[in-house]
Amino acid sequence: MNLIFLGPPGAGKGTVAAELKKTSGLDHLSTGDMLREEMKNETELGKIAKEYIESGKLVPDDLIIDMVKNRLENADAGIMFDGFPRTVAQAEALDKIAHIDAVINLTTTIDVIIERIGGRRICRNCGKVYNVSWYHKDTCEDCGGELYTRADDTEETIRTRYDEYLKKTAPLIDYYRVKGIVHDIDANGDIQTKVDAISDIIKG
Ligand code: ADP
Ligand code: ZN
Asked: What's the CATH code, domain 3-108+166-203?
């Protein structure tokens, strides 16, 4: 079973995928996390990606597709794709290397996105995502790690990322809709409601 999470930045793709990883037996592949790891390690790819990411633009398709292909070479479980594919070219490349069973389309609005991403804090150690609206400490409740704000989580960059989403990623909804595998989920509900709905889809 392979599934894709679609939806604008801040829709909660990563949060939901991290939660489902605990119960579904599926692996979590986040191209955003992979790119941040490349940046942290100052690899060649990381240096190129940094410029795009910090301005809110998508990283070029060929770089992303190669990165995902490498990662899939040693995959042994089904995968939840989070933040990939983000363009039609990426979707076509993915079709050649994996069978996609379901696409979870998380729907929300720009106001909610700005509020969520604007207040987002992430654990440097385990990656858990918090929001200042409901969490007021500087350290992670799970592992004690320090919380930080992503360099691309500024209001200006969020708008660029949303425009990129509308222009390049939203067309994927129809790309998969015609295959009959899209499930729309309201991203504004609480996490557990979304996780339960998606678990049901995974179980079939
Ligand atoms: P979000 O969904 O909150 O925008 P991600 O962590 O998924 O965050 O992505 C952060 C940034 O990484 C994107 O704005 C983009 O620059 C880059 N990126 C991640 N995945 C892809 C992809 N599949 N194609 C192109 N760029 C990507
Ligand atoms: Zn943590």
From this structure: 3.40.50.300
